[in-house]
Amino acid sequence: MKIPVQEIIHHLGEAQNIIITAHKNPDGDALGSTLGLYHALQNAGKNCTVVLPDGFPSFIAWMPSADKILLFDSMKEKVVEQFKKADLVFCLDYNSLDRTGELSAVIQDCPAPRILIDHHPFPSDEFNVLYSDTFPSSTSEMVVEMLLAVQWGQMIDEKSATCLYTGIVTDTGSFRFSCTSSRTHEIAGQLIQRGAANAHIHDLLFDTQSESRLKLLGYALSEKMIVNHALKTAYIVLTQAELKRFHYRKGDTEGMVNYGLAIQGIKVAAIFVEHEELIKISLRSKGKVPVNELSRNYFSGGGHTNAAGGKWEGDLESLLKKWNEVLPPFINEHGEK
Ligand code: 5GP
Ligand code: MN
Fold first, then answer.
1. Which residues of the chain have pLDDT under 50?
2. Cα–Cα distance between 127 and 28 in angstroms, integer?
3. Which of 36, 123, 213, 225 could link 252 by a cystine bridge, Cβ 3.0 to 4.6 Å?
4. How far apart, in whole angstroms, are the C-alpha atoms of residue 159 and residue 195?
5. CATH number for the domain including 53?
6. pLDDT score for 26
7. What's the gap in Å between 295 CA and the centre of ligand 1?
8. What was the pLDDT predicted at 337?
9. For strand 17-21 and strand 47-52, is the pairing parallel, antiparallel, or unpaired?
10. What are phi and psi of 300, to 5 degrees?
């Protein structure tokens, strides 16, 4: 999709107090794209606030100005005050307001125009300006494209470049997933030129894990991974008790789902993590196996063809029953692609 340049320039020209939002359970791209845009807009003289529905894991919390983010779940009044002043709202890395949980009511009540920048399919009609495209690797990549298109490339300073580069690295699995294009590399190159310290960023992201997180990973892979070659599927189930045993902290299971795909012949990988209120589901696939469709149809979620998420409000037993029921016909239909 083409970038709605004139509309964005028009809104950016008029706005002084800008709020930048992303989805619940913010990941590296949600945090990187919002903070990357935040720094660029601050450099352009705008008054900006990043508002997220809830907290983010520690492996991305080092991003510049992450400490200035307002979290709706713990700072409701402050967030509502900010929205009263807002004259423009950016909606990053989500395709419909319900992905922001309870924050969606506040966004909905705010009369300021909403600009969507997002790489998920099927954007809703809740936005005034739409820059929605499933081709770019990440929303962070799209934020760079947008800033270049409105001639604000020079607003990307070292801090902005650091956040945007981090968003690209996390959403592309360090430039290895098929969403990575030559343009992704070009943009990453530009961000390095603008000050993103690539080796240091990889270090901060991947080599700062806690011992218990690494042990939880080892346990999940050796004791909890069920591999079904006939169904080209591998999945991991982690219970509340197991999370407690390994001193689980938010983000500890991030990326674990990908390991199943490292097994030859496996096309679909899943992880089911039993949290207090619900079971969080992550799905990954290779090729043209649309796990977002599987998640939309059965697990109250969505996402991309090769990376989707969802949730289950019953117990693990009922979830696995559903999984074993829906997977064979799904693999039958899509597994050869
Ligand atoms: P993850 O497995 O890392 O939580 O999410 C993978 C992808 O699926 C992300 O791009 C995310 O936007 C999407 N996703 C995760 N959870 C949900 C959900 O509950 N609903 C929808 N629609 N998408 C989700
Ligand atoms: Mn993303």
1. none
2. 23
3. 213
4. 8
5. 3.90.1640.10
6. 97
7. 9
8. 59
9. parallel
10. 50, 40
